[in-house]
Every structure is written in structure tokens, then in C-alpha cells.
């Protein structure tokens, strides 16, 4: 859903906990048949991916030597789930990425832990795949404030214990002042964004699955977004989101590029949340 402000099914899956701690694992068992989630934008998104693979191939798709087998297994799993074949004469992971709206990352276990070895990431939120390729998962998260203290050991343990028969999902959320899906770099900040009209609520539905044959891990990222105005109908969520954003320290505000939109968003969320408060008399 890109344009309107009607109900968004994933709103109730978002977690708006104030910090610290700033981050949570938030991992849950994936219900059967709920891995890949196509919607009415599928054809448009696939066309966009096709164009990006042509014009920005080096930025959106890459792979380390030795990752071929794991990438091919990941690609076959995607194709089997969609029920469509991989086009021939193309890197299997690219062919798989052209069947689904999800971005695809493959991790392999090395001596030091889990390493990002291949990916096709067309819709990143301010990161570039080539910068992360070949890095341990902790280094992939290098710019994330407090990741090392709060999450690194838990993520490493979680990845080690992931079983093929028990895929897992989690979600994050972000606010962006651009609806652009392909966002490797921060867009130039709007000088004075007006909330909610110039802002978008963006969320990544992430699924982690262990691949049975190679033992690698496939990490799929489905980026979904809606105008921030969808929260206008949800005073409960507006109050929770305001509480979370208010708790952020300067480092998080900067990491989440929130300096420009934080104040207008908070005033608007307070207004929406206030509409839900029962009246009282002194
Ligand atoms: C259970 C597993 C994982 C957890 C709990 C986790 C958690 C997080 C968190 C908290 C952030 C910061 C987002 C924010 O709050 O604004 C983040 C960012 C990110 N994560 Fe993960 N993550 C997990 C797995 C992965 C994996 C397997 C990859 C592999 C590609 C990955 C790639 C990234 C990237 C590229 C970013 C953006 C980093 C940047 O800003 O440069 N994550 N992750």
C-alpha cells in the first residue's frame, strides 16, 4: 500500500517500546505459509528491481567467491515457494530476487561466526550491500548505536541455533521523509517537513531461515510503507510511538535521520493521541 490512508494490516505488528534498551530481538516463529508476502505492488516492484539490476547492478547485487552453492540453494527455495522457475542464464539469486518483492541476503558460518556472503538488495534503508559484503554480522551492524552491547551476542547465538524447520520473523519500523524504496543513501533532508503529510512510516518484515543442504542462512527483507497519516486513526499507536521517539538519545536521533522530522512528528502524534484521552474535570 503506497498511496491511501486506509487500514494497514502490519500496523499492529510494530513494537513501540521506549528505550533504553533501544533494541529488541523481537523474533517470532513464522506461521506456515506466511514467508513471502506479495501485494498489489508486486509487478511494479519487480519492474523496479529489474531496472536497478540493469542500472545499479554493482550496488544492488553482489556475492563472494565460494558463496555459489548457498546462493543457489536460497534461490531454489524462493522459486519453490513462489511456484515459478528461475530464469536461466542469470545468477540464481538475482533470478530469485526477480520473483519476489523481498530483498535477499545469504549468510555463511565461518570460523569467526556468521558472514554476509551474497545478496540482492534493491530497497535498502540507508546502507549499501557492497559495503557490508564479507563482513561478520556484528560488523554489518557497525553503525547501529548500542547494537554491540544490546544485541550482538544474542543475534550470534540466535543464528547458530536457527533450524531449517523453524523459520523466524521480526519487524522494525522507521520514519522517512521520502517514499523512495531504493534508498542506499540518506535523501537530502527536507528543510521543514510537515507532519504527517511529508512523512512515511516504513517497516521491514524480516524472515530468517536456515537452509537444510548448505547450512547457510537466508535473510529476506520485505520493505513495506504507508503514509504516516495512517496513525491518524490509531490514537493508541500514536501515543506509543511518541513515547518511543521521545526516549531516543542524540545518537539514535542522528542514526535514524530524525533531527528534521522529530519535533513536527511528536506534535502531530500528541494531537492524535490526545483525541483518545477521556475528558475530565478538576
Ligand atoms: C535476529 C537477527 C537480527 C536482529 C535482532 C537485527 C537487529 C537490527 C537492528 C536493531 C538494526 C537497527 C535498525 C534501527 O533500529 O534503526 C539493524 C540494522 C541493520 N541490520 Fe539487522 N538484525 C538482525 C539480523 C540481520 C541480518 C542477518 C542482517 C544481514 C544482512 C542484517 C542487516 C542489517 C543492516 C544492513 C542494518 C542497517 C545497518 C546500517 O545502518 O548500516 N540484520 N538490525
Flag low-confidence runs: none
Cα-atom Rg, whole angstroms?
19 Å
Mean pLDDT equals 94
Percentage of residues assigned to helices: 25-40%
Number of helices: 10
Q: What small molecules does the structure contain?
A: protoporphyrin IX containing FE
Distance between the termini: 44 Å
Helix-strand pattern: EHHEHHEEHHHEEEEHHH
Largest sheet: 8 strands, antiparallel
**Helices and strands: which structural class?**
alpha+beta
Percent range for β-strand residues: 15-25%
Number of strands: 8
- The coarse silhouette is globular
List its traits.
18% strand, 282 residues, 8-stranded antiparallel sheet, alpha+beta, binds protoporphyrin IX containing FE, single chain
What does this protein structure show overall?
There is one protein chain. This protein is of the alpha+beta class and 282 residues long. The chain has a domain at 16-185 and 201-227. Helices cover 33% and strands 18% of the residues. The chain contains 10 helices and 8 strands. The chain has helices at 42-55, 57-60, 68-82, 92-97, 129-132, 137-140, 147-161, 235-247, 250-255, 262-274; strands spanning 28-29, 61-63, 103-110, 113-120, 168-171, 174-176, 200-210, 217-227. Strands 1, 2, 3, 4, 5, 6, 7 and 8 form an 8-stranded antiparallel beta sheet that branches. Helix 8 (235-247) runs antiparallel to helix 10. The chain is globular and about 55 Å long. Protoporphyrin IX containing FE binds at residues 23, 25, 27, 105, 107, 116, 127, 132, 137, 140-141, 143-144, 151, 155, 158, 170, 172, 219, 256.
Amino acid at each position: 500500500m503506497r498511496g491511501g490512508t486506509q487500514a494497514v494490516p502490519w500496523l499492529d505488528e510494530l513494537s513501540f517500546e521506549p528505550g533504553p534498551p533501544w533494541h529488541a530481538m523481537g523474533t517470532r516463529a513464522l506461521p506456515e505459509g506466511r514467508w513471502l508476502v506479495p501485494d498489489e505492488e508486486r509487478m511494479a516492484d519487480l519492474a523496479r528491481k529489474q531496472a536497478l539490476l540493469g542500472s545499479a547492478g554493482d550496488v544492488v547485487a553482489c556475492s563472494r567467491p565460494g558463496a555459489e552453492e548457498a546462493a543457489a540453494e536460497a534461490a531454489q527455495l524462493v522459486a519453490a515457494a513462489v511456484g515459478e522457475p528461475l530464469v536461466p542464464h542469470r545468477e540464481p539469486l538475482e533470478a530469485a530476487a526477480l520473483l519476489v518483492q523481498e530483498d535477499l541476503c545469504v549468510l555463511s558460518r565461518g570460523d569467526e561466526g556468521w558472514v554476509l556472503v551474497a545478496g540482492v538488495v534493491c530497497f535498502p534503508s540507508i546502507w549499501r550491500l557492497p559495503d557490508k559484503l564479507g563482513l561478520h554480522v556484528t560488523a554489518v551492524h557497525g553503525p547501529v548505536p548500542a547494537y554491540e552491547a544490546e544485541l550482538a551476542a544474542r543475534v550470534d547465538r540466535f543464528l547458530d541455533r536457527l533450524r531449517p524447520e523453524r523459520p523466524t520473523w521480526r519487524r522494525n519500523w522507521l520514519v522517512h521523509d521520502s517514499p523512495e524504496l531504493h534508498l542506499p543513501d540518506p535523501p537530502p533532508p527536507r528543510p521543514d517537513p510537515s507532519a504527517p503529510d511529508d512523512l512515511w512510516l516504513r517497516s521491514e518484515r524480516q524472515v530468517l531461515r536456515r537452509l537444510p543442504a548448505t547450512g547457510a542462512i537466508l535473510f529476506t527483507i520485505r520493505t513495506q510503507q504507508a503514509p504516516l497519516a495512517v496513525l491518524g486513526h490509531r490514537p493508541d499507536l500514536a501515543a506509543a510511538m511518541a513515547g518511543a521517539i521521545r526516549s531516543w538519545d542524540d545518537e539514535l536521533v542522528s542514526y535514524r535521520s530524525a533531527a528534521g522530522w522529530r519535533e513536527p512528528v511528536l506534535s502531530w502524534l500528541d494531537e492524535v493521541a490526545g483525541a483518545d484521552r477521556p475528558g475530565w474535570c478538576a
